Amino acid sequence: MTTLSEAYRDHPIHLHHIIPLDFDSVQAVPDSHVWPQSDKYSPSSGVLLPSDEHFSIPIIDLMDPTAAARVRHACETWGAFQLTSHGVSSCLLEDVEHEARRLFSLPARQKMKALRLPSGATGYGLARISPFFNKFMWHEGFTIMGSSADHARELWPYEYKRFCDVMDNYQTKMKALAERLLLLILESLDISKEEMNYSSLVHASEKGACTALQLNNYPSCPNPNQAMGLAPHTDTSLFTILHQSDTMGLQIFQDGVGWVSVCPIANALVVNVGDLLHILSNARFHSVLHRAVVNQTQHRLSIAYFYGLPADSQVSPASKLVGSGQLPIYRSLMVKEYIKMKAEHLDKALSLIRI
Ligand SMILES: O=C(O)CCC(=O)C(=O)O
Ligand SMILES: [Fe+2]
């Protein structure tokens, strides 16, 4: 079966788009990291603080009997929501954040030992979207797919086990939560698991879902208005479950409104609709454009769990949602084909598969 790593292998990335800045060694934002102020990519462009509830993403309690309807509304209007009562313990969230902090606070030369390979998918480095932008992001990341042992051993030859145990446990809990959420999302689209007549989704929830864990670090920045933490993008996943530390930084784009900050809520997880769910829902749910901005005094961490379909499966608008007067908006294609298109064309990928 094709894995996500194999799907990325054909798209080597140049080393200067993998190696992060040694943030400890700079006093000012270097020109290579200064983003233009005048366009939509400007880090300070049109941001709304969610002081008004109309400008904040919905908060959904997973145990609420009306959760499916609320999920549908959130995914149709925002493409994102904050999830509470999700059953992932606050201890585990603290542990995963603590381990991520421990990793990113290592000296730069130590982190470089676990650098992602040019044609690799896992390890330490800049975000994969880096080559699409003229300027570099104020960010360093660490990607895990399955076991983190090989890279963790490079970072801590003798004491890597605690890191691996926490990451394994977190991925196990995230997978179980993602499977619950997938069923809720199908229910919200009025599709029962039995009606899911193509195998990929059933397949995904039962065995081969393509998943990845992404640890993100945004060091404090001498001039946050000039720098960009993570440039605007949509996730390729079905959906992403994100834990953010208690520093503001995540923003989502809402048409006609602009960039809206997603306030950290203790123990809530942010769920973002990704491209695959957008395709599957025949664009009823939208894959949310989001970015991360940086802070002058506090560094910020986030931990993203990407839940996708198996790379070898087919994705298309669900048959339940097309037919009765509704035409499919996207053609059917293999998930790995879509991953490849995204790696080559980023935000143009969806338009390339429109019918
Ligand atoms: O740091 C964040 O809040 C966003 C992270 C993100 O969008 C990603 O890892 O894809
Ligand atoms: Fe993202």
Please, could you describe this protein's structure?
The chain is α+β, with helices and mostly antiparallel strands and 355 residues long. The protein has a single domain, classed as Sandwich (Jelly Rolls). 29% of the residues lie in helices and 19% in strands. The protein is built from ten helices and 15 strands. Strands 2-3-11-8-13-6-5-4 form an eight-stranded mixed sheet. A five-stranded mixed sheet has the order 1-10-9-12-7, with no helix packed on it. The protein has a two-stranded antiparallel ribbon with strand order 14-15. A hairpin with a 3-residue loop joins β9 (250-254) and β10. α2 (67-77) packs across α6 (161-188) and α3 (90-104) packs across α6 (161-188). The longest helix has 28 residues, at 161-188. The model has no long low-confidence stretch (mean pLDDT 91). Residues 233, 235, 240, 290 line the site of fe (ii) ion (FE2). InterPro entries: DIOX_N, IPNS-like_FE2OG_OXY, IPNS-like_sf, Iron_ascorbate_oxido_reductase, Oxoglu/Fe-dep_dioxygenase_dom. Pathway: Plant hormone biosynthesis; gibberellin biosynthesis; Hormone biosynthesis. It is an enzyme of class 1 (oxidoreductase). Its cofactor is L-ascorbate. Belongs to the iron/ascorbate-dependent oxidoreductase family. GA3OX subfamily.
